[in-house]
């Protein structure tokens, strides 16, 4: 049905996008994923401006994006549009992603350190934002996603285990004993006997943007660069600390809920500071006056003998 629709009109309409959105939800895609896909498809639709859908138009959009977006963002947008064309049974309209060389170092200006994380927690406690301090520690000590906070319940605290369901897959997240202790004390003080611990007054899961705003509030007071402070960076810090201790990517992938170890590698990238220190310890750069080259040494000796 979708194929005939496009062949007859060759135009992406809001009705067609709405149908695809409904399909994504039936496929049990997360709300954030669906929103992202639909936003990217609408961006392409706006570029088309009601024009006919042709392969050359998609290639032109891809080229235009290269002037304003990073390669990773472009590939993400292309993946969304390609998925849309798959659903329409029009694979011939799909375009190839950009080739990106895998980065081996993370950006130091984006890397949240353990010391900075501790300052954020201490600042939250000092500012009497106890729930925020616990939220930071919960994400960072378990490695869960922000969207998985809703599975941290009073019942989970009692058992020390949270059953987390993400993208149709369930995994068990173990809660450290110290986290169980502080969360249990918080539940008692707030009268939380069952259900979610981190939720709004209406009992809904905390929104990602609200958590981000609260974290940004701490930046200046904790003397931490704002670019380093966002919820997902706490998950990255968990991954780096775990990997430094265990050096086990497969186990870390299980803990993070990754289906592919390649994704986990991204979480364990370092800024390169340690690598530079290791290069310096090799001592292959000679400070001060360099020793003469062997050929120069031979020539000079001959001159002295003559």
Description of the structure:
The chain is mainly alpha-helical. It folds into two domains: 2-93, Tyrosine recombinase, N-terminal domain (DNA polymerase, domain 1); 108-267, Intergrase catalytic core (hpI Integrase, Chain A). It is built from 15 helices and two strands. The chain has helices at 2-9, 14-26, 31-48, 55-65, 71-87, 114-126, 130-142, 154-159, 177-190, 208-222, 231-246, 249-256, 261-267, 273-281, 294-305; strands at 161-166, 169-174. Strands 1-2 form a two-stranded antiparallel ribbon. A hairpin with a 2-residue loop joins β1 (161-166) and β2. The longest helix is centred in the N-terminal third of the chain and has 18 residues, at 31-48. The chain is globular, with a radius of gyration of 27 Å. Mean pLDDT is 85; it is low at 1-5.
Mean pLDDT: 85
Return the structural class.
mainly alpha
Biggest β-sheet, characterized?
2 strands, antiparallel
Broad shape: globular
Query: Gyration radius, to the nearest Å?
Result: 27 Å
How many domains, as an integer? 2
* Multimeric status of the protein: single chain
How far is it from the N-terminal to the C-terminal residue, by CA? Answer: 96 Å
At the fold tier of CATH, the topology name of the largest domain is hpI Integrase, Chain A
CATH architecture of the largest domain: Orthogonal Bundle
What is the H/E string? HHHHHHHHEEHHHHHHH
Unreliable segments of 5+ consecutive residues: 1-5
The level-1 CATH class of the largest domain: Mainly Alpha
Number of strands: 2
CATH superfamily membership of the largest domain = Intergrase catalytic core
Helical segment count: 15
